[in-house]
Amino acid sequence: MKLALAGYGKMGHEVEAVAKSRGHEIVGVFDIEKLLSPEALKAQSPDAVIDFTQPDTVVTNVRVCSKAKIPMVIGTTGWDADVPKVRKMIEEAGIGCVIGSNYSIGVNLFLKIVAHASRLLSVADYDVYITEAHHRTKKDFPSGTALRISEAVLSGFTSKTKIVSQIKQGEAPSPDSILISSIRSGAITGTHEVGFDSEEDAIELIHRAKSRRGFALGAVHAAEWIAGKKGLYRFEEHITEILGG
Fold first, then answer.
1. What is the spatial distance between Cα 98 and Cα 184, in angstroms, rounded to a whole number?
2. Quick one: 84 exposed, middle or buried, by C-beta within 10 A (0-12, 13-18, 19+)?
3. Per-residue pLDDT for 211 more than 80?
4. Least confident of 63-67, 90-94, 172-176
5. I want to staple 48 with a disulfide (CB 3.0 to 4.6 A). Which of 71, 100, 148, 231 is the partner?
6. Domains contained in the chain, CATH given
7. Residues in Cβ contact with 112 at an 8 Å cutoff, skipping those fewer than 6 apart
8. Residue 134 catalytic?
9. Catalytic residue among 24, 134, 160, 192
């Protein structure tokens, strides 16, 4: 495949290395010094664009790819409010796009484990919490992955109905809410923990990323899979197909 990269930071470099190791060609690299444009994409004719940029550039990049009729894989997080707008542009352009809060295969298996554990522990007298930790330069919080994890918990934990990520000094979270706590420090690649706590014991489920390669590998798999498809797909919902196809 011929791939173009939008964003050439740490993740962009990792995606480039993984793509080349799988026999793909990088035909274009776009960042703040060389912006993505329909003209550049049409000239290079990539089979897909993999986007790891910033939340405020996603809609613009989708608009550009839509005009050029180039499929996308979006790994940028923190732009959930714009998903309906992006979906409309993708559908009107008749192209395919994969979005995901986390392209790690392990994280997506972790989501399934969390959902199953929540169903089991919902009938017992446990409370639940979520913590997430990332490097100090990550700008969005809670992380997109933490939000997906909270959805997995809510799918099985019947006593919980909402998520909170901030509480006022002197207040406690309501009994029907799940508190997501965020840490931003150092060079942490990404750690997510779901804790189930009772008077008698505690159960902890933890996923800890060792490097960025796992995220890059999932994104490249998604780029291989999206070729010839139309519409918006979530990586976590189609991971079995993506890895198998």
1. 27
2. exposed
3. yes
4. 172-176
5. 71
6. 2-103+212-244 (3.40.50.720), 105-208 (3.30.360.10)
7. 152
8. yes
9. 134
Q: Which of 77, 80, 92, 85 is nearest to 134 (CA)?
A: 77
CA-wise closest residue to 203 among 194, 216, 212, 214:
194
Q: What is the longest distance spanned by two Cα atoms in the chain?
A: 64
- Answer whether the bond into residue 173 is a cis peptide, omega within 30°: no
* Cα torsion 113, 119, 125, 131: sign: positive
SS3 track for 115-179: HHHHHHHHCCCCEEEEEEEECCCCCCCCCHHHHHHHHHHHHHCCCCCEEECCCCCCCCCCCCEEE
* Share of residues in the chain with pLDDT > 90 (%): 80
Q: What is the mean pLDDT of the chain?
A: 94
For residue 13, indicate whether it is catalytic: no
Residue matched to tokens 């019947």: 158
pLDDT average, residue stretch 11-35: 95
Question: Which residue(s) pair with 5 in the sheet?
Answer: 29, 50
Instruction: Tell me which amino acid residue 73 is.
Output: V
Tell me the Ramachandran region of residue 90: left when phi exceeds 0, alpha when psi lies from -120 to 50, beta otherwise.
alpha
Of 35, 94, 33, residue with least CA distance to 64: 35
Apex CA 177: angle with CA 171 and CA 178, to 5°?
Answer: 100
Catalytic residue among 2, 138, 230, 238: 138
Whether 74 contacts 234, CB under 8 Å? no
